[in-house]
Amino acid sequence: MRNFQLLNSQIDVSAMLIQQQMNGGEPAVSDMEVSKEYTPLKPPPQLPPPVPQIVITEQPHPKLHRFRYQSEQRGSTAGSILGVRASGDRPTYPTIEIQGYHGPAKIVISCLSTDDPPRLHPYRLIGRPECRHGLCVLRVGPESGMTCSVNNLAVQSVLKKDVAKELEQRQQCYPNPFKVPVGDASTIDLKKVRLCFELYLETAPGQFRVVHPPVLTDTVYDRKYNPDLVISEMSHCRAPASGG
Hints:
This protein is of the alpha+beta class. 16% of the residues lie in helices and 26% in strands. The protein is built from 3 helices and 10 strands. A hairpin with a 2-residue loop joins strand 5 (131-132) and strand 6. The longest helix has 21 residues, at 2-22. The N and C termini lie far apart (129 Å).
């Protein structure tokens, strides 16, 4: 019996030496020791859901649009605000994308002043069937890839004598999304505007909730008062820059 126990102990020692050689000289670790040292990996922390927001992927061109009065409109068209990447043979338009949300939504576009913070602007947005009361309301959804290119949208001027009345009507149907009072209407610069995009998400059929804050574009200037410099006439006379 003693010889048998001695033989078993020798076999165990030989097995441990063989395992140590296989581990590159490191002492063998028993299954019991491995189970004591093992700690399960913690699952990665869950990231918060993305916040729905509007991203302007193409700004409006600052100087290519002419603000026109109602009497200046040519037929049913009043021009269109072009995008900043527009060229002579390739028109583009202001474009927005809704990120962090995939579903039906509504975009309300309005004119705001270039003040900081912005105030309501008396000029109206016209040109599309969705334009009402100086605003433009567009529907966006998964079928459009949650993007919207706003073409056929124009700015219509208002006579100075009608500015206060227009602002009063605008406040009744659509208050300033930045909650800024109009103040002195005569201090609003009528030669430039900024487009404001406000996002509404559909929570139930026909019911929407607003997502803050709204998004403003770069300034759009009336081309009549801010034209690009062009050479209108050239003289054949020459003179040195030093004079004489």
